[in-house]
Amino acid sequence: MTTIVVVGGTGHAGRAVVREAEARGHEVRVVSRRRPEGPLGAAHHAVDLLADDDAAVIAALAAAFDGADAVVDTSNGMAPGAQAVFTTGARRVAEAAGRAGAGRVVVLSIAAVDRSEYPYYRAHAEQERVYAAGPAPVTVVRATQFHEFLGIFFGADSRLGAWSRLGLLPYPRGCRFQTIDLRDVARALVDAAQGDDPLGVAPVPGSSGAPTATVGGPQVLAVRTMARAWRRAHGSRRVPVGVPLPGPLGEFFRAGRNLVPDAAVGTTTYDDWLAGR
């Protein structure tokens, strides 16, 4: 039986990886800053990746990784202050994995993350470089945006919530997406943790030098089409309206750099996902 440690295993992606690994019969441990409320199932190790004492954090991680066959890093930090998890946190995980003799580290990243100046993406690209320079063997799994991603535009409590209060359903104008189901991403990460090709995609040297596999959703869709599908699925009367998405993230999406049609290996379409909500 393989032992897999999931760093960030109480987060959205991490929980999906825990479920997938347990379903395959693996022993699973979870590392996160706090133990979540409610049942977790897997053994939990409370470690703050960004705590002040560098040596103490690495030692705590090494103890959590002891005897592990693989470490899967799904940690995330959207706020600027939390993005150190991709640098300081990644370095500490990599050093601890090397100290513990973990067979491999698997890192969740974003498709074409090295082709954007968006600060969050730049931080993720740096995370790949940190792991590539670390002491443990690493595989990077880059995924397209999750199906949930578009909720930041469509949801009533989204960053564009004021539009919804006006009866409008905003979407980023001029963009297409190839969203992927989180369960497919979890399958890819556990495949890599087992030493297999993620969803059958053979890793190749990425921009960091680390073996990198890119996995995408099964369809490329105009975001306006997706907004209409979201509207139907939610029985909403809000009127879809395109809004500008400024800055480097908008430029990245409008240029289609988020799309990887040759890596369309996901199995659950956006409509399928909506139907299951």
What does this structure look like?
The chain contains 10 helices and 12 strands. With 277 residues, it is α/β, with parallel strands linked by helices. The protein starts with a strand and ends with a helix. The mean pLDDT is 93. The longest helix is centred in the middle third of the chain and has 14 residues, at 119-132. The chain has helices at 12-23, 54-65, 88-100, 119-132, 151-154, 161-165, 182-193, 223-233, 247-254, 270-275, and strands at residues 3-7, 27-32, 43-46, 70-73, 104-110, 138-143, 168-172, 176-177, 204-205, 211-215, 221-222, 239-243. It is 35% helix and 19% strand. The strands form 3 sheets. An 8-stranded mixed beta sheet has the order 3-2-1-4-5-6-10-9, with helices on both faces. The chain has a two-stranded parallel ribbon with strand order 7-12. Strands 8-11 form a two-stranded antiparallel sheet.
What's the helix and strand layout?
Blueprint: E1 3-7, H1 12-23, E2 27-32, E3 43-46, H2 54-65, E4 70-73, H3 88-100, E5 104-110, H4 119-132, E6 138-143, H5 151-154, H6 161-165, E7 168-172, E8 176-177, H7 182-193, E9 204-205, E10 211-215, E11 221-222, H8 223-233, E12 239-243, H9 247-254, H10 270-275
Parallel strand pairs: 1-2, 1-4, 2-3, 4-5, 5-6, 6-10, 7-12
Antiparallel strand pairs: 8-11, 9-10
